[in-house]
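User: I'm designing a mutation panel for Nif3-like dinuclear metal center hexameric protein and want to avoid disrupting the core. Could you give me a predicted structure to guide residue selection? Please restate the sequence first so the numbering is unambiguous.

Assistant: Good idea. Sequence first, for numbering, then the predicted structure tokens:
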Amino acid sequence: MAIALTTLVDEAQRYLNAATISDYCPNGLQVEGQPQVRRIVSGVTASQALVDAAVAAEADVLLVHHGYFWKGENPCITGMKQRRLKTLLAHDISLLAYHLPLDLHPEVGNNVQLARQLGITVEGPLEPGNPRTVGLVGSLDTALSPREFAERVAQALGREPLLVEGEGLIRRVGWCTGGGQGYIDQAIAAGVDLYLSGEASEQTFHSARENGISFIAAGHHATERYGVQALGDYLARRFAIEHLFIDCPNPI
């Protein structure tokens, strides 16, 4: 079965409420391919490796979290950017990308999906009363030591996280996938025992240590694999088309 590309894009836009979210890149259809869609390939970043994998999988649409055309980047279509776009256009593959809308969504969002992977019950946003806050706060059913929770993260994500071990057991957790380490101050204000993000900055260590909480950096790529999979699954069910998630390993 095939559906119109415009129908797929319209539904993704509606479901993610993408038009209402200010972002650092255009959300939605970034590269237009063939007008009919039978198969979606999803992945975290529209790298050349993922584009090539989409070609091999005979995808009609490549659905990603990290697409192209970021604010402040060189707009010239040269080098790496030219090769990626040339491959998509040569094979008539559309590129559909959602950044912050896929972080924020209450069902398929990266942060909600990561909570499900880690057994965290979502309580609300890191900033109370601000539903546009990307990060979330939640609780564990059973208190764990920082090392026990780090082991849970390692098992769920398939990689060893960076742990800054703080004081006491972990009952309340704050988190923001990807490059969300800057939200540690909001997490501290929310009274969490541990804050988790994808990346870490030099000052993150000091913030955690001096405020007596634990911190985990679990990997930008690793923490953002689940939202795009969930969105791809939703669209596949909605329109009875095929969806294949392809994970191109990234240690960062």
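For picking mutation sites, this is relevant: The first helix runs from residue 5 to 16. The mean pLDDT is 96.
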